[in-house]
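Input:
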Amino acid sequence: MGDTWSALADPTRRAILHLLRHQNRTAGDIAGHFAMTKPSISHHLGILRQAGLVTAQKKGQQVEYALNTTVFQEILGFIAQLTEGEKEA
Amino acid sequence: MGDTWSALADPTRRAILHLLRHQNRTAGDIAGHFAMTKPSISHHLGILRQAGLVTAQKKGQQVEYALNTTVFQEILGFIAQLTEGEKEA
DNA sequence: ACTATATTTAGATAATTTTCTAACTATTAA
DNA sequence: TTAATAGTTAGAAAATTATCTAAATATAGT
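Output:
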């Protein structure tokens, strides 16, 4: 399992996650939103998949990607640790 | 202002933030906790400072670093966007 | 003024990452 | 079975990053 933090460090990958916010999308659909080749997007999708941030499911000829938000717990936990015991504005 | 996400992508930098969780610490104190040279830690501190995740204040001969948690809003906002409209476990 | 301590800056090297083109695999359609 | 479409894999080049040693700066003490 790859590192969540470094998967999120790249702006293209964060934009991909944002694209998947409301709908699942095929690899080609996703690639269509970026000024980048398909292999590059495929690489980014692989990293997101390894980090568990997306899941991939083959649908005939295409591969449908979906957001998986459960992984964010790790990040929220880290931030909670650092911000615990603070008062609100 | 440097990028918050990439500042947090490095495990050494996250460990530094964790060290600053309850107390402010000098650069040397921080460096003492890692199997890494002082210049390397100084470099990481610079990146954290640029990202606004820590503040630095000169205290005589030393430099005291403190955690700044306000920057986490950006990250929490991103995650909130992606997780909005989900039910709880 | 010298010496010691704390920290940063500079420059180099090694490792990692991003992106590309070309080639490959799998599925669908003619 | 041949051709077209969707996607991934392989390999290379360019850029970025992490780390080191050596040198520089700033403060404090003798």
